[in-house]
Amino acid sequence: MFGRKTSDARAERAARRIQAVGLTVAGERGGRVANKVSGALGYGRVELCDDPACPDCARR
Predict the structure, then answer these.
(1) pLDDT tens-digit series, residues 20-58
(2) pTM of the full predicted structure?
(3) How many Å apart are CA 53 and CA 42, to the nearest integer?
(4) What is the residue extent of each domain of the chain?
(5) Cα gap 7→19, rounded to integer Å
(6) What is the rounded CA–CA span in Å between residue 8 and residue 11?
(7) Is there a contact between 11 and 43 (Cβ–Cβ < 8 Å)?
(8) CA atoms within 13 A on the CB side of 58
(9) 12: which residues sit within 8 A by CB, 6+ positions away?
(10) 3-state secondary structure of 59
(11) How far is residue 47's CA from residue 45's CA, in Å, rounded to a whole number?
């Protein structure tokens, strides 16, 4: 029960870390590649939006 919640959090953390590295190394193109890599690994994708009022993106 608790292991599944932890693994979801770890997967999200890994996906966000891969996304950050991709954006740092190659900008937007790196972010797209990072999404493909994290999706292929089963971690999910990180979607970034341009809305400054978005509560999820404002925490960055």
Answers:
(1) 999 999 998 999 999 999 999 999 888 877 777 877 665
(2) 0.70
(3) 29
(4) 1-60
(5) 18
(6) 5
(7) yes
(8) 5
(9) 43, 44
(10) coil
(11) 6
